[in-house]
Amino acid sequence: MRTRHLYLARHGHADALGDLTEDGRAQASLLGRRLAAVPAAVIWHSPVPRAVATARHIAEHLPDAIVAEADELADHVPYIPIADETPSAWRGRFDGSSAEDVADASRRATALLARFATAEPVPGIPAADTHEILISHAPPIAWLVRDALGAPPSRWLGLDSANTALTIVRYRTGEPPALVVFNDQSHLPPELRWTGFPRTVVQ
């Protein structure tokens, strides 16, 4: 039986230009310390600069891990729901979406799952069991969590992740995925938790 462990995390807190703030850099470093004992073969990251920078801070604590870009982890909407599927809090969010937008979301979501939501061997990583860190954004993480739970496509909505919060999903050959941890922030002091959420969230 082969096991693939994915350690998913949203990038650190960023400013309006997309650069990590002082808080974001501190968050990334603290996440790196938490993951330092993980036998990670690779740190995958989105091509978006705030995710690239977060991965580099984490890599300082995992010097043996490969750091590599994965376009599938870019900040994108994985599924555009129809009106009847859309929770009231999200009404209007997808107004104006074209058929091309829907198709592009579906294509990217399918590619994300095909690459990461599987226990199949990872090219270039020979170990029977693998540990991989994925630095991404809230929507792709929500899509992977939704898939692991076997929830309807629209259920990715509302599965928010705080900046550098840790989510772990385990894939084993012949078994359904297991959501081990979701949005855990225990490596962060109280003042660095909950950034990245809508202002409506009580802090």
Please characterize this protein's 3D structure.
Helix 1 crosses helix 2. The model has no long low-confidence stretch (mean pLDDT 93). This protein has 203 residues and is an alpha/beta fold. It has a six-stranded mixed sheet with strand order 3-2-4-1-5-6, sandwiched between helices. It is built from four helices and six strands; from the N terminus they run βαβαβαβαββ. The chain starts with a strand and ends in a 19-residue tail after the last strand. The longest helix is centred in the middle third of the chain and has 18 residues, at 99-116.
Main traits of this protein?
18% strand, 6 strands, 27% helix, single chain, alpha/beta
Using DSSP, what is the number of strands? 6
Helix/strand order, N-terminal first: EHEHEHEHEE
Tally of contiguous helical segments: 4
The rounded distance between the terminal residues' Cα atoms is 42 Å
Percent range of helical residues: 25-40%
- Overall geometry comes to globular
Strand order in the sheet with the most strands: 3-2-4-1-5-6
Please tell me how large the radius of gyration is.
Answer: 17 Å
The main pleated sheet reads as: 6 strands, mixed
In short:
By secondary structure, the protein is of the alpha/beta class. It has helices at residues 22-35, 49-59, 99-116, 138-149; strands at 3-10, 42-45, 66-69, 130-136, 166-172, 178-184.
